Amino acid sequence: MKTENLIRALAADQAGPKTPMTLALALCLLPGIILSILVYAIALGPRPHLMAMLPEPRILFKLIFPWVLLACALPTAQRLVRPGADLRACLIMFGVLALILAAAVVTKLLVVPEAHWHASLMGHYAAACVFFVPVLSFGPLVGALIVLKRGAPTNPTLAGAGAGLLAAAMGAAIYATHCPDDSPLFFATWYGLATIIVVMIGAIAGRRFLRW
Amino acid sequence: MRNERESEWESLLRASERRTKLRSAGARSAAPDADAEDIVQEILLAVHLKRRTWIETAPVAPWVFTIARHKVIDFLRRRGRRIHLPLEDFSESLAAETEEPSLIGADIDRHLDSLSAVQRKVVRSIAVAGASIAETAADLSMSPGAVRVALHRGLAALAAKFSRQG
After folding, report:
1. How confident is the model at residue B91 (pLDDT cuts 50, 70, 90)?
2. Which among A10, A81, A83 is the nearest to B48, CB-wise?
3. What is residue B21's predicted lDDT score, i.e. its pLDDT?
4. What does pLDDT average to over chain A?
5. Cα–Cα distance for residue pair A114/B140, rounded to 1 Å
6. Is the model more confident about B8 or about A204?
7. Of B66, B88, B105, which residue is a domain's last?
8. Which of A33, A182, B127, B158 has its CA 20 to 30 A from that of A58?
9. Are residues B3 and B60 located together in one domain of the fold?
10. What are phi and psi of B34, to 5 degrees?
11. Does residue A9 belong to the interface with chain B, where contact is any CB pair within 8 Å?
């Protein structure tokens, strides 16, 4: 077949998915989110007195930060699968987020006497955090990868990592309402570790499944 | 049965073809026995099948070039793997065998053979005979919807076949 003929066939083909990527992402993430919420409802549940403690800054920070991360990860994931998209704005956003997190950690270190740093860092349920955040991220990660497969990532590994970050933000947002450890030191370390795990799983999966 | 959208898309594909030819020529000099037309066709298929990743308000050139670059690199990587096989270690008979996969240099007819019978008939009818969707549907006694689906799946299968070769 000559290129001329191929072009004719391509021009005639107007089929294929027409749902915009944003809507598709929302629809495809939904089953994963529902799965995560079910796991949360069965195995975890919200911590006691959550509503009463809400005004405390450290709790607000822990609850809101994952949502902000999610708000940055969503447009980033969409850009990662769009050839020629400009990623600089995303990099700046994540830089600002890292600075905010670092500022919270430094504040905590200044406020808490050095003797309590270790207790503050280790909290009570570090292992549960590192286990459950990835578990709660699993469904959203699968959903995100399925949608991103429709895109055209010139770097499948990076796009998979973006999907991992998106999923980890969701897992962290859900788990934060259960987690009884509130220190920013704990948050940055163990949620951070959990996020890195999910991002790495996403990157490996992306490398495998997001090729085109 | 050509509508405005089809013609618009066709002119964009033609522009892409012209502008990616240069790049493919570059790829050919790096992999001399490769057929530049093969790369162009692979790029056009990718541009077409991934067209939803282009935002219509954004400039089209960076988008097309990024896809073209991705496909050329991908192509060279696949070729590279084959080129760097230590062929000289093998006997002459083996060396002769490795010449056979210059399939790469052929046109996509051989890929058409890998499609299902219906997809192949539909793609042939529209691409080679230049029939419209409606004419093809009448010809093959299918519904126009089924022809559209077969055409789309056939093209997607063709693209998948392309990126697996080598």
Report:
1. very low
2. A10
3. 67
4. 90
5. 81
6. A204
7. B105
8. A33
9. yes
10. -80, 145
11. yes
CATH (domain of B127)? 1.10.10.10
The DSSP code sequence of A149-172 is: TTS--SSHHHHHHHHHHHHHHHHH
B128: confidence class by pLDDT, cuts 50, 70, 90: confident
Q: How far apart are CA B54 and CA A181, in angstroms?
A: 44
Picking from B105, B120, B149, the residue at the C-terminal end of a domain is B105
The mean per-residue pLDDT over the stretch A22-27 comes to 84
Q: Is A83 on the interface with B (CB under 8 A)?
A: yes
Place of tokens 């056939």: B154
Which pLDDT band holds residue B24 (cuts at 50, 70, 90)?
low
Whether residue A211 lies within 8 A of chain B, CB to CB, comes out as yes
Residues of chain B neighbouring A3 (CB-CB closer than 8 A): 17, 37, 40-41, 44
Q: Are residues B112 and B73 in the same domain?
A: no
Contact between B14 and A7 (Cβ < 8 Å)? yes
Question: B99 and B36, same structural domain?
Answer: yes
Q: What range does the domain containing B23 cover?
A: 1-105
Q: What is the ipTM of this complex?
A: 0.77
8 Å CB contact of B70 and A83:
yes
Give DSSP secondary structure letters for B125-143. HHHTS---HHHHHHHTT--
Nearest to B16 by CA among B61, B72, B71: B61
Q: Are B94 and B133 in the same domain? A: no
* Residue A95 confidence (pLDDT) above 90: yes
Q: How far is B149 from chain A (nearest CA, A)?
A: 7
A13 CB neighbours in chain B (<8 A) are 48, 148, 151-152, 155
Number of domain units in chain B: 2
> What are the pLDDT digits (tens) for A153-173?
999 999 999 999 999 999 999
